[in-house]
Amino acid sequence: YLLASRRGSGTPSLRNPDDLDSLLDSTYSGSLHGLLSARLGHPATVAVGHVLGHSVLRHDIFLPEMLVEVKLLLAPATQVLLEIAEIERKAYMHYWSTSVGDAPAMVADIGYSGSIQANLSRMTGVPLGGSYFALNDRARKIKTPSWAEARHHDGRVESPEDVSAIQQHDLLLESILTAPQAQFSHFESTENGLRAIHANHELQPHQWQTVEQTHQGALRFIDDVCAVTRQES
């Protein structure tokens, strides 16, 4: 299991200003503060506030309609964002080298646009594979020699009207297939080595118990299928 998230892989993948396009490629409605916190993290949000002024962080943002405007707005803070990205990249690459090294790697996830896969590939500089429940047409950003395949729906080749059950119930799937810990944010380098930073818990203890029961039920189902089909190897 590799610690990764859209936020945790996104910021350290920034190598030049154009990479912001990949981090802002999906829909969003809310404040600039909320956008930066979700996509780039707290350190980047604070840094942008210092450069642009904290009042700017209250601006309402709508993506993808305001993509060009957001990039122009962030332009004065580009250098500080790249500096934060480099710090996080060095920490994550240390983790990557000890966890993955030079071995071939594949991302396995629900979907939908392959953002984590694209981020990891851009950060590490190596091609990666991706295996998903469903993909939408924004997964076209994954280019050869990387690859991505979807089991139930692939919006790159299927009609937009042909929406799968995976996409119709994406929020439900993401809520019940979430990790039992709060979302991974980023790594920090300390005197004692790397420290994984996680976001605050969004669920209450009784809600986590429901998630845990769902996970255990899914695992028991897999065990039963393997026992019946005798193909667990």
Could you walk me through the main structural features you see in this protein, from its secondary elements to its overall organization?
The chain has about 230 residues and is α/β, with parallel strands linked by helices. It is built from 10 helices and 7 strands. Helix content is about 45%, strand content about 15%. The strands form 3 sheets. A 3-stranded parallel β-sheet has the order 3-4-5, with no helix packed on it. Strand 3, helix 7 and strand 4 form a beta-alpha-beta unit. Helix 3 packs antiparallel against helix 4. The longest helix is centred in the last third of the chain and has 25 residues.
Topology (elements, then pairings):
Blueprint: H1 6-10, H2 20-23, E1 28-31, H3 32-39, H4 42-52, E2 60-63, H5 67-74, H6 78-99, E3 106-109, H7 115-124, E4 129-135, E5 147-154, H8 165-168, H9 170-176, E6 184-190, E7 193-198, H10 205-229
Parallel strand pairs: 3-4, 4-5
Antiparallel strand pairs: 1-2, 6-7
Q: Main β-sheet: number of strands, strand sense, barrel status?
A: 3 strands, parallel
Shape: globular
Strand order of the largest sheet: 3-4-5
How are helices and strands ordered from N to C? HHEHHEHHEHEEHHEEH
- What is the C-alpha radius of gyration, as a whole number of Å? 19 Å
> Please, what is the average pLDDT?
90
Give a brief rundown of this model.
The protein is α/β, with parallel strands linked by helices and 233 residues long.
List keywords for this structure.
233 residues, alpha/beta, three-stranded parallel sheet, two-stranded antiparallel sheet, 17% strand
